[in-house]
Structure formats: structure tokens, C-alpha cells
From TrEMBL:
SUPFAM superfamilies: NAD(P)-binding Rossmann-fold domains. One of its GO terms (molecular function) is oxidoreductase activity. It comes from Actinospica acidithermotolerans. It comes from the Bacteria. InterPro entries: NAD(P)-bd_dom_sf (IPR036291), Sc_DH/Rdtase_CS (IPR020904), SDR_fam (IPR002347), SDR_subfam_1 (IPR023985). It holds the Pfam family adh_short. Keywords: NAD, Oxidoreductase. Transmembrane segments: none annotated. This is Mycofactocin-coupled SDR family oxidoreductase. Belongs to the short-chain dehydrogenases/reductases (SDR) family.
């Protein structure tokens, strides 16, 4: 039987986001950029935030101001407006000030995608305090700050909205070598579920989307090395579908649905886009 894999999701024809503004963190590259481009292609104006610098606790390079500028360029090529913010999501004051300013410029806020994050790998008992603090801070506290900055704006508008948090298979399973990341992403799930209940009377929906591996250029060489040393854990990193990794556009397609009015009756869920990994 010949090898077959469905193509990456095509450029959308839907106009689900006409007249809407989306705030996306971690937007300089990878999933965040793909989400910005997807929503812009469907009519949204974009507020794109990213740290744009290296993170000391990772083995891969961080995004750059040039990466964020390229995301803005791609959005503008689609005929949409874009405002960029260079900020660490752990700095609530800067996130809040940047978002308020961007909303004043673009006129409103409808969609929030808390996507910024990072990870590194080690056996749980060998994670040092710096790695733990940075991982929890950037993946969980940063997601909280994103929501905390956006929610008062959505409530004041009184026209509903959606908040989508980037989770992970590590937010649904105890993957080895990632205890700090696992803890952070499980925390993101809890945060989303609590917010879903609190915000439901205001027609503001909160959900999490859970990828497995995504081809975003972030090479975690330490995980590869750890699996060579501890091969017993390798099956825990094996998906069901016959693909090694997802593309950023695969995740963006799922986010574009769950954040849209087509999913207006969906809140408080964990949506896996993980090649069937959590079904095994």
C-alpha cells in the first residue's frame, strides 16, 4: 500500500472573522504566526505579541523582532491591520498596557489566543529552580496574565468573545522529562475550566487546544538524548496516526474553528489535535 498523508490545511475561504480583532501571544513564529495568518485570512485584524529574545533555559534560539515583523507583514499582505507588541507575558503591566493601546487603535477585541510558551527537558528530580520558575512563569503565569489583561476589555464591550489557551499532550498526560511543562500545562487546563464557568454568563468561551509535536523549528535536542538513554519511555512519545509531527497550520485550523462563532456552544473543553496520541 502506498504511503499517504492528507495535505496541510489549505488557505481558508471562510470569512468567520470579518469585523473581529484577535490578540495572539507567541505570534512571531510557529503556531502563533500560523494562527495570526489564518485568522487574518478569514477577516480578522491582529494584535501580535511576542518576547522576541532568547530564553536562557532553552536549548533552541528564541524568536526575534524580525520574526515578529514578518508575521505583521504576512497579515498586512492579506489586507488586514496589525499591531505588534514586544513583551514578556510574565510582565503583566507591559502586557496590559500594550493590549489596551492596541485595542484603542484597532477599535475592539473579540478573540484571545494565549499561545506563548517554552519548554526544556530533564528528569524531574534534576530540574533546577531556574528552569522550574521560567517554565511555570512563561507557560502558566503568562497565560493567566494574557487572560487577566483581556477579560476586563471583553466584559466592558459586552459582546461576548472567546479565549483559547494552547495546551499540549503534556497537559493531558504525564510525559517524562517534562515535569515542569506538564505541571504548567495541566495548570492551564484548570485555569481555562475555571474561567469557562466564570465567564459563561457573559458569552465568553474558554477552551484549550492540545497539540503533540509541531514542526515549528524548535529543536529540543535534550529530549532526543534522554530517549536514547531511557528507551523504555519512547512509546509514550508515539502517536497513533502515521505522521511524525503536525504542522503549525494544523493547529491553526483547529483554533480558527474553536475560537469562532461556529463553536458558540463549546466552552470548557480540551480539544486534542495530537495525531491520536492521547487516545492510546
Amino acid at each position: 500500500m502506498e504511503s499517504y498523508e492528507p495535505p496541510v490545511p489549505a488557505q481558508p475561504n471562510a470569512r468567520r472573522y470579518v469585523g473581529k480583532v484577535a490578540f495572539i501571544t507567541g505570534a512571531a513564529r510557529g503556531q502563533g504566526r500560523a494562527e495570526a495568518v489564518r485568522l487574518a485570512a478569514e477577516g480578522a485584524d491582529i494584535i501580535a505579541l511576542d518576547l522576541c529574545e532568547d530564553i536562557a533555559t532553552t536549548t533552541y534560539q528564541g524568536s526575534t523582532p524580525e520574526d515578529l515583523a514578518e508575521t505583521a507583514n504576512l497579515v498586512e499582505k492579506l489586507g488586514r491591520r496589525v499591531v505588534t507588541i514586544q513583551s514578556d507575558t510574565r510582565d503583566f503591566r507591559r502586557v496590559k498596557e500594550g493590549l489596551v493601546s492596541a485595542v484603542a487603535e484597532l477599535g475592539r477585541l473579540d478573540v484571545v489566543i494565549a499561545n506563548a510558551g517554552m519548554t526544556s527537558g530533564a528528569l524531574s528530580w534534576e530540574i533546577d529552580e531556574e528552569h522550574w520558575d521560567v517554565t511555570i512563569g512563561m507557560n502558566l503565569t503568562g497565560a493567566f496574565h494574557t487572560a487577566k489583561a483581556a477579560i476586563p476589555i471583553l466584559l466592558e464591550q459586552g459582546t461576548g468573545g472567546s479565549i483559547t489557551f494552547t495546551g499540549s499532550v503534556a497537559g493531558r498526560r504525564g510525559l517524562p522529562f517534562l515535569a515542569d511543562y506538564v505541571a504548567a500545562k495541566h495548570g492551564v487546563v484548570g485555569l481555562s475550566k475555571a474561567l469557562a464557568n466564570e465567564l459563561a454568563p457573559h458569552w465568553i468561551r474558554c477552551n484549550t487546544v492540545h497539540p503533540f509535536g509541531v514542526q515549528s523549528g524548535l529543536q529540543m535536542t535534550e529530549i532526543t538524548d534522554l530517549l536514547k538513554e531511557h528507551d523504555v519511555y519512547r512509546p509514550m512519545f508515539s502517536p497513533a496516526l502515521p505522521a511524525y509531527i503536525s504542522q503549525p497550520e494544523d493547529i491553526a485550523a483547529a483554533v480558527a474553528w474553536i475560537a469562532s462563532d461556529e463553536a458558540r456552544h463549546v466552552t470548557g473543553i480540551e480539544l486534542p489535535v495530537d495525531l491520536g496520541r492521547t487516545n492510546r
